[in-house]
Design a protein that fits this description.
By secondary structure, the protein is an all-alpha fold. Helices cover about 65% and strands about 0% of the residues. The protein has one domain (about 10-155, about 170-330). The two termini are about 20 Å apart. Helix 2 (about 35-55) runs antiparallel to helix 9 and helix 3 (about 65-75) runs antiparallel to helix 7. The protein has helices at about 5-20, 35-55, 65-75, 80-85, 90-110, 125-140, 175-195, 200-210, 220-240, 255-275, 280-300, 310-330. About 50% of the residues are buried.
């Protein structure tokens, strides 16, 4: 088994948090439509990072089971734009991260789906920390999202005959049904994200049983390849459904690739944190902390959350989340 370093794991978790919380910022300025073109390019950007990691780790083989984790990610990622358009980047991220936190923690803590059971030094503190983190998620569920103004796709400009073309697109109202659908999708996406590491947990457990020393980062290229293949299939099926006229905003291309590179780099740090902190500690932290970064962008840059009550509610949720994360982190330390 690879020797663990708490300091390296914590540093990796911090870098992953900052990148995960910021990776959707480049694309939020542009009209993304249904988000499938964006998620396809994002997976390409992630694979670029995967090739670099592949070279660093001396070209390990492709692990088909690790590609399953990429499949879970790609399906969830294909729904993120729909969620963010329905309930906002901050609220959507905070809600699906709450579900991810519970699922990822439970899989590792109780050894579900063939994973190795991981019990922290202070089991009671760990459980209390997870509960507090989930309580923080309850504060986010009722936040009101104010849809941001985005730059329309190039061909949409000619259709805006009744609007002033002064560079200030109209704010789009969101129906209650659309909000409900987006909220339900966060549960599904959270479940998928919470199981991204499950196939790799199983392989590492099998490796340790046979005396091997596989690490999470060894699987990163396979994970990225699985994500790209899945997103390609999704995009092809979508293009056929649209009769070869998919929604493609060319202005999304570079921002989407940048988002993918940021997300891929964050995932490398996430895998490193899992290796050195164990998923039972890393998952709750990295499932919730990026939402705090997302919230900062949503308030300060995109103005998605307004009003004193909503801001106070968000602050209360963030404080609860930070307290929970602290308890989870300390539960890993043996005093």
């Amino acid at each position: 088994m690879t020797e663990q370093s708490f300091a390296l794991g914590l540093a990796s978790a911090i870098f992953a948090t900052l990148l995960y919380g910021s990776c959707y910022v480049p694309v939020r300025w542009f009209e993304a439509g249904d988000g499938l073109y964006f998620q396809w390019l994002m997976c390409i950007g992630q694979l670029v990072v995967g090739v670099v990691v592949l070279a660093v780790y001396a070209w390990p083989p492709v692990y088909p089971l690790a590609m399953l984790g990429g499949l879970f990610f790609a399906i969830g990622n294909a729904l993120t734009i729909t969620i963010m358009d329905g309930i906002g980047m901050a609220v959507g991220s905070l809600l699906w991260n709450t579900v991810t936190c519970i699922v990822g923690w439970a899989v590792s803590r109780f050894g579900l789906f063939g994973s190795l059971m991981k019990v922290p030094y202070d089991n009671v503190m760990n459980i209390i920390g997870v509960v507090v983190v989930c309580v923080g998620g309850c504060f986010f569920a009722t936040l009101k999202h104010h849809p941001m103004k985005v730059r329309p796709a190039p061909w949409q400009l000619s259709e805006m005959d009744n609007q002033s073309l002064d560079g200030k697109p109209e704010e789009r109202p969101i129906s209650t049904v659309r909000r409900i659908i987006a909220t339900l999708l966060t549960v599904f996406v959270g479940f998928l994200y919470g199981n991204m590491m499950t196939p790799m947990n199983f392989m590492i457990m099998e490796s340790e049983t046979s005396g091997g020393s596989l690490t999470y980062t060894t699987f990163f290229f396979s994970f990225s390849l699985g994500a790209l293949l899945t997103s390609t299939v999704i995009f092809v099926v979508y293009s056929l459904y649209r009769r070869n006229r998919p929604f493609i905003n060319p202005e999304l291309t570079v921002p989407s690739l940048l988002s993918g590179i940021m997300y891929g780099t964050a995932t490398v740090f996430f895998f490193t944190a899992n290796q050195h902190l164990d998923p039972i500690v890393a998952y709750p932290i990295l499932a919730k902390a990026p939402g705090i970064v997302c919230s900062c962008w949503a308030i300060l840059l995109f103005k998605e959350i307004k009003g004193r009550w909503d801001v106070l509610q968000l602050i209360a949720g963030v404080i609860a989340t930070l307290v929970g994360i602290t308890l989870i982190t300390v539960s890993k330390i043996k005093f």
